[in-house]
């Protein structure tokens, strides 16, 4: 056998085919990344250039009043924080508790398997269905002090979106905690409750925190469940009882104002997109940072 | 002496309060995990009960008629069901090669690790951009930009029923494109995870017998990862069916049925988003019926996805 038979021949059909596929895959990933670059560029240049202090604190003006000043998105920023705050107050404890049951107490029985399956199913249900559900049981029934559309109802709808993410990451985070830690604590005479609260939960803290941040980011960007639960309001929140009334949020503001024929309102939608995207991307990168620190430990 | 020895190994006597807390905490966590099941069943029951009126009146006719008239109280959801299926399946057809191709590109040793991680991160960040923002971008930037392209398609392939109407702005075709952007990150992320889990020994064996990179990918690596990839694709299909905001903003929201993807249409979720707030009477019930259909569709896709992942997963 000649030595040249063993070297790489670049003009063989199989090698050419292989290179062609590599190029195709490269083009595909370029196409996949392109939208992110385009969308981000638009939001940063178009939305970012509109940002000013007034815009961040003022209320939006009713359409058509004065084309020069459309007001601001201050109430929507506050509303987004309040609604997603309500969502996490509901979803985080329930999610962590459910995750603790799955990882610490259940022994893989049919109930636990059913809950895990249900968690996957719940995360696959379209968010608008969660909105329709909360509309029927809370908005129509006026169950909270006779109020109909309210920030509270919006928060409850978003908590349904958050719940599966928190349960799943808590379950998976706790499963990664080595069993020796539990045995050590239990062997020293600690009760199951103390072991979970002071040993296993803190060691899984980082992956649980990652899950909460990711779930919160997903909920904060949701619009569909809010358009008929929290609805929209043009005014700032003045007191705590305002959670029983219609409440604005960045995402609903974008939806409402994107389709308005007024230029000034469209610009508010771009500005709100900028704030929302920066917020969500920040949360995503933050969660990545948390899990990176965790894996280096 | 012997009696003392026996006492050495008696278990600690747990005080009543400790037992109470332990048991109480356990039951609390059981109750919390049961919340998932309760919410799931409650959603089902509420949507079902609210739609019984419309189910009783229209029955299965609701699925195949496309008139939607609140004035005469005649409802049929065929336009929306057709729109949901066509947009989600068409977007899947475009997104699968792109997503799986990208996943292969960033798992096999084609690029330096830094660039691979960067591409992966960027695709995943795309998932963090909310649907409504993509909708805004689609309406104000993408649609005007691609309209000439769609018009060209219409002029060339207008004899095919799917392209048989002139694109006038919002419509199903731009909705399909925005759905592609939205489901790409899911397909890419899950395919990447499945490809990364393929044991390194399989690759070494394939290269060891002289396979080129792509014959190894097609014959060894992809078949080994197929269960995860299929699961991811089905998950993306479920997401595409339920996706609401971006689609509602760009699809045109029209109930006039047309085979053509160039014309405005409806999906079930966009119909809900568009009409639910102002609906009353039997229209609410009909919308709930449509919501019920959407729920059954996404549920079926999701359960099938879970089943296929368990069924196909290879054991090494």
Largest sheet of chain B: 2 strands, antiparallel
CATH architect. name of the largest domain in chain A: Orthogonal Bundle
Lateral strand order in the biggest sheet of chain B? 1-2
Q: Helix coverage percent of residues of chain B?
A: over 70%
- Tell me the fraction of residues in β-strands of chain B, as a range: under 5%
Termini distance of chain B?
A: 58 Å
Largest sheet of chain A: none
Shape of chain B: flat
Low-confidence stretches of chain B: none
Order of helices and strands of chain B: HHHEEHHHHHHHHH
What name goes with the CATH superfamily of the largest domain in chain A?
A: MetI-like
- Biggest protein-protein contact in the assembly: A-B, 87 and 86 residues
Might you state the CATH topology name of the largest domain in chain A? MetI-like fold
Question: What assembly state would you assign to the polypeptide chains in this entry?
Answer: heterodimer
- Number of strand segments of chain B: 2
Average pLDDT number of chain B = 86
Order of helices and strands of chain A: HHHHHHHHHHH
Structural summary, described in words:
The complex is a heterodimer of chains A (about 300) and B (about 325). Chain A contains eleven helices and no strands. With about 300 residues, chain A is an all-alpha fold. Chain A has two domains: about 35 residues; about 220 residues, MetI-like (MetI-like fold). The model of chain A has no long low-confidence stretch (mean pLDDT about 85). With about 325 residues, chain B is an all-alpha fold. Chain B is built from twelve helices and two strands; from the N terminus they run H-H-H-E-E-H-H-H-H-H-H-H-H-H. Chain B has a two-stranded antiparallel sheet. In chain B, helix 2 packs across helix 12 and helix 4 runs antiparallel to helix 5. Chain B starts with a helix and ends with a helix. The relative contact order of chain B is 0.14. The model of chain B has no long low-confidence stretch (mean pLDDT about 85). Chains A and B meet through helix 1, helix 3, helix 4, helix 5 and helix 6 of A and helix 2, helix 4, helix 5, helix 6 and helix 7 of B. Chain A: It comes from Prochlorococcus marinus (strain MIT 9211). Chain A: This is Phosphate transport system permease protein PstA. Chain A: It is a multi-pass membrane protein. Chain A: Keywords: Cell membrane, Membrane, Phosphate transport, Transmembrane, Transmembrane helix, Transport. Chain A: InterPro entries: MetI-like, MetI-like_sf, Phosphate_PstA, Phosphate_transprt_permease.
């Amino acid at each position: 056998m000649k030595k040249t038979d063993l070297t790489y021949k670049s003009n063989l059909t199989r090698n050419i085919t292989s290179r062609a596929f590599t190029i195709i895959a490269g083009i595909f990933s370029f196409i996949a990344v392109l939208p992110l670059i385009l969308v981000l560029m638009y939001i940063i240049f178009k939305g970012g250039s509109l940002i000013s202090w007034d815009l961040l604190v003022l209320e939006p003006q009713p359409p058509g009043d004065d084309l020069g000043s459309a007001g601001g998105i201050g109430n929507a920023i506050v509303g987004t924080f309040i609604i997603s705050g309500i969502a996490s107050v509901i979803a985080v404890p329930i999610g962590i508790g459910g995750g603790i049951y799955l990882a610490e107490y259940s022994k893989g029985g049919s109930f636990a398997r059913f809950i895990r399956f249900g968690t996957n199913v719940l995360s696959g249900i379209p968010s608008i269905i969660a909105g329709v559900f909360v509309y029927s049981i809370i908005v129509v029934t006026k169950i909270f002090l006779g109020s109909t559309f309210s920030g509270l109802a919006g928060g409850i709808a978003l908590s349904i979106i958050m719940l599966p993410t928190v349960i799943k990451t808590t379950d998976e985070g706790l499963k990664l905690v080595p069993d020796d830690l539990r045995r050590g604590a239990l062997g020293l005479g600690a009760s199951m409750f103390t072991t979970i609260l002071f040993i296993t939960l803190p060691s899984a803290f980082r992956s649980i925190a990652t899950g909460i941040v990711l779930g919160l980011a997903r909920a904060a960007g949701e619009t569909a469940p809010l358009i008929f639960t929290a609805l929209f309001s043009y005014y700032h929140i003045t007191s705590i009882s305002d959670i029983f009334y219609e409440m604005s949020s960045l995402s609903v503001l974008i939806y409402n104002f994107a389709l308005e024929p007024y230029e000034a309102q469209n610009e508010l939608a771009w500005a709100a997109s900028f704030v929302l995207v920066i917020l969500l991307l920040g949360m995503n990168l933050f969660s990545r940072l948390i899990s990176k620190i965790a894996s280096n430990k | 002496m012997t009696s003392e020895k026996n006492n050495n190994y008696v278990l600690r006597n747990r005080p009543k309060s400790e037992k109470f807390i332990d048991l109480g905490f356990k039951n609390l966590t059981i109750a919390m995990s049961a919340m998932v099941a309760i919410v799931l069943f409650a959603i089902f029951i509420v949507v079902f009960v609210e739609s019984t009126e419309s189910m009783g009146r229209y029955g299965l006719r609701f699925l195949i008629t496309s008139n939607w008239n609140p004035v005469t109280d005649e409802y049929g959801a065929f336009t929306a069901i057709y729109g949901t299926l066509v947009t989600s399946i068409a977007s899947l057809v475009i997104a699968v090669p792109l997503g799986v191709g990208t996943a292969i590109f960033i798992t096999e040793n084609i690029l330096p690790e830094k660039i691979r991680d960067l591409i992966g991160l960027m695709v995943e960040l795309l998932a963090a951009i909310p649907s409504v923002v993509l909708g805004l971008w689609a309406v104000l930037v993408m649609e005007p930009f691609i309209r000439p392209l769609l018009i060209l398609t219409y002029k060339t392939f207008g004899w095919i029923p799917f392209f048989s109407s002139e694109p006038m702005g919002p419509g199903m075709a731009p909705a399909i494109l925005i759905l592609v952007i939205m489901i790409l990150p899911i397909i890419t992320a899950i395919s990447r995870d499945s490809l990364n889990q393929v044991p390194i020994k399989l690759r070494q064996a394939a290269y060891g017998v002289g396979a080129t990179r792509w014959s190894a990918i097609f014959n060894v690596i992809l078949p080994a990862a197929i269960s995860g990839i299929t699961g991811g694709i089905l998950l993306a299909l479920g997401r595409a069916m339920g996706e609401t905001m971006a689609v509602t903003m760009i699809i045109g929201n029209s109930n006039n049925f047309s085979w053509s993807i160039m014309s405005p249409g409806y999906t079930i979720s966009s119909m809900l988003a568009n009409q639910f707030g102002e609906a009353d009477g039997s229209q609410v019930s009909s919308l709930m019926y449509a919501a019920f259909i959407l729920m059954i569709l996404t549920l079926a896709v999701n359960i099938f996805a879970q089943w296929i992942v368990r069924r196909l997963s290879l054991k090494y």
